[in-house]
Each structure stands twice: as structure tokens, then as C-alpha cells.
Design brief:
By secondary structure, the protein is mainly alpha-helical. The chain has helices spanning 31-62, 69-96, 101-134, 136-142, 147-173, 180-210, 214-247, 252-277, 287-307.
């Protein structure tokens, strides 16, 4: 009996298939389970879009474009795009009960673009913070003023090219046979997860045993929590593709759970920034001020870097 994809990305039912020849169908044999996960996923997407949209609006209008916050803005854009595309896919399924054909494959490619961009941004953010806490003087003296903007542009361009190649392959092979996504996801995990894990450990040690500046600790805490929740909530989906690659069999509900966790991860960052920026006894501060407080130190550091540009080492 054919079994349709349980995931918002693809239909990956296996019948003695190999990683290079995965059988794919369009219909889901357990509509009730898919409907339950869709009911939970769509509100998460809406709330996450509101939160990330708020971050983009507040930080984008008030933070200088050459500060660390440009990373956070781009990460919020990627998360917003991921959640918006996921919401469209779930609505598409409600009307068609299908996870295949041209519209779905296009949305899947956009989803891949947004997810890959967010993952690479988090990797760069983690590396950037590690360098800044391990070599603070060198970092402030030698960091290019427009480093953040350049890195973000390179990441978006790279992920766009990779996603375009993915869409071209599935268009040539025929819509519905989108197993190439599995390989891209595994490559992202192999490149990014080890670096983020190591960086998270370094930042944790810095916060617990080294850091003495309360203002700087807020920024490191926000980044560390963002990395932690990504590693925890994104892992089920990564495990799905690894299991599928090696064992070619998996419980469909595990796939739905993995995508639900990924949506929660994409929507939780604004809440992290808000909670980290709050102070006891000052609950009436505006959200804009709370967000700015988390990233204020980097803006001040950049100002010092610009004013002393002629004395750089």
C-alpha cells in the first residue's frame, strides 16, 4: 500500500528503496494524523511570523546597518520566510491533501532556501561570538566595518544558488521525485551542527566562568539560548533524514513532529530576545527598548571602532 509523505516537505514512503531511488507518492494514508499536526503547526507559524516581523521592524528601523544586529535581522527574515512558506504548504494540503506537484515543489524550494540560510547564519553568528569572546581586542581592531552586511549577502546568495540547483534537478527529473532535498539537508547538518555545538560550549563556558560584564552577558546569553534551542528543536528533523538515508524506514508521525519542532524553533527567537532583555522590577519597558538593550554593546563597540579607524592595528 502506498503511503504518502507525512512531512510538509516531501512524500518519502519507502518500499525497499535506496537513497538514490526513493519511491515517492502524493497521497497521505493517515489524513487524521496529518490534520492534527497541521492544526498545531499553523498557529505556531502565525505567532512566529508576528514575533519575527516585530524584530525586523524594531531592529531594522533603529539599529545601525554595520552592527552585529544585522545578523539578527537577517536571521529573523529567514525565520519569517520559513514560517510563511510552511503556513502556505499546510493551507495547500488542507485544500488538496497532497504534498507534490508544481506549486508544492516551488514552496519546498523556498523552504529549503530559508532553512539553509537560517542555519548558515546561526553558524556564522556562533563563530563570530566565539572569536569576539576569545580574542576581544583583536576582534574589535581587525573586524571590517561592513563585515556583517557582506557575510549576510554571501550567505543569501550561496543558499539561493543551492536551492535553485535543487529546484532545477527536481524539475528535470519530474515533480514529486524530490529526494535530492535529503542530501542538501544532510550536507547542511554535517557542515553546521558540529561548529554550532562547539561554539555553544565555548559561549557557555564564557558566560558561566569568564564573563563579568552584565551588558555583554545579555548578548551572549541570547545567542547561546538561540543556538541551544536550534540544536534541540532542529535535531528531530535532522535525525529523520539521517535515519531515512541509512535505514530507509521511519515512523511518519516522527516526521511531522520534526517539522513542528522546526517551526517552533523559527518562532522562539523573538521571545528569547524579549526575556533576556527584561530586568526585574522594570516590566513596563517597551519592547523596542528591550530588544535594543540586548544588542546595545555591539553598537557601542562599532562606534568606537569607527571613531578610531585611523588607529587600527
Amino acid at each position: 500500500m502506498d503511503m504518502a509523505s507525512p512531512s510538509p516537505f516531501s512524500v518519502l514512503a519507502q518500499t525497499n528503496a535506496t537513497p538514490s531511488g526513493i519511491n515517492i507518492t502524493c497521497n497521505d494514508s493517515n489524513i487524521n494524523d496529518v490534520l492534527i499536526f497541521a492544526i498545531f503547526t499553523m498557529p505556531v507559524c502565525v505567532l512566529g511570523m508576528l514575533g519575527n516581523g516585530l524584530v525586523i521592524w524594531l531592529l531594522g528601523c533603529s539599529i545601525k546597518r554595520n552592527t552585529f544586529a544585522i545578523y539578527i535581522i537577517n536571521l529573523s527574515v529567514a525565520d519569517f520566510g520559513f514560517l510563511a512558506t510552511e503556513l502556505i504548504i499546510e493551507i495547500y494540503w488542507l485544500f488538496t491533501h497532497l504534498y507534490c506537484d508544481f506549486p508544492y515543489e516551488l514552496f519546498q524550494t523556498v523552504l529549503l532556501l530559508m532553512y539553509s540560510t537560517g542555519q548558515f547564519l546561526l553558524t556564522v553568528i556562533s563563530i563570530d561570538r566565539c572569536i569576539s569572546v576569545l580574542f576581544p581586542i583583536w576582534y574589535r581592531c581587525h573586524r571590517p566595518v561592513h563585515l556583517f552586511t557582506i557575510v549576510c549577502a554571501v550567505i543569501w546568495a550561496t543558499c539561493f544558488v543551492l536551492s535553485s540547483i535543487h529546484f532545477t534537478i527536481i524539475a528535470v527529473d519530474g515533480f514529486g521525485e524530490n529526494y535530492t532535498f535529503m542530501y542538501q539537508f544532510i550536507v547542511n547538518a554535517v557542515l553546521c551542527l558540529p561548529l554550532m555545538t562547539i561554539s555553544s560550549v565555548v559561549l557557555f563556558i564564557k558566560i558561566c566562568f569568564i564573563s563579568k560584564s552584565q551588558r555583554r552577558r545579555k548578548l551572549l546569553t541570547a545567542i547561546l539560548l538561540t543556538l541551544f534551542f536550534f540544536l534541540v528543536l532542529a535535531f528531530p528533523l535532522t535525525a529523520f533524514y539521517v535515519i531515512l538515508y541509512f535505514f530507509e524506514d521511519i515512523d511518519p508521525n516522527f516526521v511531522h513532529f520534526g517539522y513542528l519542532c522546526t517551526c517552533i524553533n523559527s518562532g522562539i527567537n523573538p521571545l528569547i530576545y524579549y526575556l533576556v532583555g527584561r530586568q526585574k522590577g522594570k516590566t513596563r519597558k517597551g519592547i523596542k527598548e528591550l530588544f535594543q538593550k540586548v544588542f546595545k554593546e555591539e553598537e557601542l563597540s562599532t562606534d568606537k571602532l569607527e571613531t578610531s579607524d585611523g588607529s587600527k592595528i
